[in-house]
């Protein structure tokens, strides 16, 4: 709270900004509740909901009101040697056209949240890539790529198998970049055509290492395990880890145990290991291995044969929080997730619309990460250890702007908060523009609980948040689905708080603390 006090003091000493009659993106808060069924409802239903949200939340000169929508990238099931074409991504392009048209026709702004499907929730290329070469999957430390009970059919990759984020996973990365750039070019064209409607976007939605086997399917409860099962030990990931750690002072050493460059250091000596070769212990230069061949393997981590090298290099597979080698592995896992976020953003913001040459500005593109080092008021939550998704994975300046999801849990009496001043402090100081891509200050832990009805609680949460000047706020969620009842915005206390919030802050232009403080 010390930083919050400092910000308030600075704000009090700033000259009052002139109030304008109508705001633009550069001086306004984008407020766009996530409309879960945005493209699924009829035009009449969407128009009715647009009118409802305008009435319920209201308007103000420096609040740009609209709806946000998810857009899942439906990559095709193709051989990895076959390039992705515009026709392969056409359904995505048509979807985004409809998102922007509906907003424009109903006098709203819109935000599009891109979800690639290689982590949450899935796409055909993910399963195809793993079926063709199981090294493209995320591997657990015990050699399995999912719960063994899910791996009974050698012809079907289950949805519990996630793709590795490793940059070494070629050629699937080439196919992903192709498809992403096709979508990015189209989105750039839409943004150029509708600059006052299609304002912002985010992606890739909640990139993390797999939560399978450690959590239940909704990611909120811990499964019945005695120990954490870490990922990702794909041969591609382990190879990339080896090269990253070797690239420095061990670059000239012919083996982990020798000091061939004469700098007085060996890898084994510095990290307390006994590797005899830089070759991988498992699946070194194995070439593609089909999913069906993997399923048939009696040993997922072989001890002999063509896929085993005794004394070969391997990432640490047993948790030891005091081990320098394990600490290096933890940091590398986070780097891999951050690299995915940065690479995805780069593809999105450097793909010009063929007609206008316009590219999506970094100021309007946000990451969409889980700040697992702040989640539910805990700095070392199990989700952080499994996901490798601390807030640093959301910070990609200058390629894009910082964005995270933030939910406060509620057990009927107490709140376990992710959306805290500590989180906001890290966010506002990271880039000129930052936002919360999914936000709800009160999510009950079960359907049997109702959200808080305390208007003062919601107003306090919103006021504290606003002190840090987010540029984009995506309340979660605008939905009629029964399964979303516990956090539905419609006719809720949260909705009434948003209405009051807009009236309080909406006449004052938005500004960036990061830019103002230099």
Give the rounded overall mean pLDDT: 93
Radius of gyration: 24 Å
The total strand number stands at: 9
Describe the largest sheet.
Answer: 9 strands, mixed
What do you see in this structure?
It is globular, with a radius of gyration of 24 Å. Helix content is 32%, strand content 10%. With 518 residues, the chain is α/β, with parallel strands linked by helices. The longest helix is centred in the middle third of the chain and has 26 residues. 45% of the residues are buried. It has 14 helices and nine strands. It has a nine-stranded mixed beta sheet with strand order 5-4-3-2-1-9-8-6-7, covered by helices on one side.
Task: List the SSEs and their pairings.
Blueprint: H1 2-13, E1 29-31, H2 43-57, E2 63-72, H3 90-105, E3 109-115, H4 124-132, H5 172-193, E4 198-202, H6 235-246, H7 267-271, H8 291-296, H9 324-349, E5 365-366, H10 382-387, E6 402-410, E7 415-416, H11 421-428, E8 434-444, H12 455-467, E9 472-475, H13 493-505, H14 513-517
Parallel strand pairs: 1-2, 1-9, 2-3, 3-4, 4-5, 6-8, 8-9
Antiparallel strand pairs: 6-7
Helix pairs in contact: 3-5, 5-9, 6-9, 12-13
């Amino acid at each position: 709270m010390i930083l919050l006090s400092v910000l308030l003091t600075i704000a009090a000493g700033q000259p009052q900004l002139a109030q304008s009659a109508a705001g633009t993106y550069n001086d306004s808060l984008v407020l766009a509740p996530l409309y879960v069924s945005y493209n699924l409802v009829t035009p009449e239903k969407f128009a009715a909901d647009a009118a409802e949200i305008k009435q319920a939340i209201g308007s103000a000169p420096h609040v740009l009101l609209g709806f946000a929508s998810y857009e899942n990238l439906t990559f095709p099931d193709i051989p990895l040697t076959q390039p992705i074409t515009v026709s392969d991504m056409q359904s995505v392009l048509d979807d985004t056209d409809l998102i922007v048209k509906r907003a424009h026709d109903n006098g709203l702004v819109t935000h599009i949240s891109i979800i690639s499907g290689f982590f949450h929730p899935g796409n055909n290329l993910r399963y195809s890539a793993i079926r063709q070469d199981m090294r493209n999957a995320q591997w657990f430390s015990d050699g399995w790529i999912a719960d063994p009970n899910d791996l009974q059919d050698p012809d079907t990759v289950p949805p519990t198998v996630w793709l590795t984020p490793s940059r070494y996973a070629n050629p699937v990365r080439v196919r992903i970049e192709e498809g992403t750039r096709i979508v990015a070019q189209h989105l750039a064209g839409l943004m150029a055509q509708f600059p006052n409607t299609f304002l912002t976007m985010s992606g890739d939605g909640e990139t993390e290492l797999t939560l399978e086997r450690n959590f239940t399917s909704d990611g909120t409860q811990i499964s019945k395990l005695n120990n954490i099962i870490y990922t990702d030990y794909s041969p591609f990931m382990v190879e990339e880890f080896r090269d990253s750690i070797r690239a420095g002072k061990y670059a000239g050493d012919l083996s982990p145990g020798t000091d061939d460059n004469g700098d007085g250091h060996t890898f084994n000596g510095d990290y307390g290991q006994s590797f005899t070769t830089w070759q991988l212990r498992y699946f070194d230069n194995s070439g593609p291995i089909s999913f069906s061949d993997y399923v048939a393997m009696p040993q997922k981590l072989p001890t002999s044969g063509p896929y085993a090298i005794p004394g070969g290099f391997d990432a640490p597979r047993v948790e030891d929080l005091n081990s320098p080698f394990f600490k290096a592995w933890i940091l590398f896992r986070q780097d891999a997730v951050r690299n995915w976020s940065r690479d995805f953003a780069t593809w999105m913001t450097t793909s010009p619309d063929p007609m206008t040459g316009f590219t999506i500005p970094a100021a309007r593109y946000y990451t969409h990460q889980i700040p697992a080092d702040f989640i539910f008021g805990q700095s070392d939550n199990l989700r952080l250890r499994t996901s490798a998704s601390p807030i640093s994975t959301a910070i990609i300046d200058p390629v894009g702007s910082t964005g995270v999801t933030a939910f406060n849990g509620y057990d009927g009496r107490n709140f376990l908060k992710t959306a805290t001043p500590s989180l906001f402090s890290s966010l506002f100081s990271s880039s000129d523009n930052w936002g919360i891509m999914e936000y709800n200050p009160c999510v009950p832990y079960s359907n049997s609980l109702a959200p808080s009805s305390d208007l003062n609680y919601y107003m306090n949460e919103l006021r504290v948040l606003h002190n840090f000047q987010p540029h984009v706020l995506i309340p979660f969620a605008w939905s009629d689905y029964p399964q979303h009842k516990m956090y539905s915005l419609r006719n809720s206390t949260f909705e009434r708080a948003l209405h009051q919030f807009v009236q309080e802050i909406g006449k004052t232009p938005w500004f960036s603390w990061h830019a103002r403080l230099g």
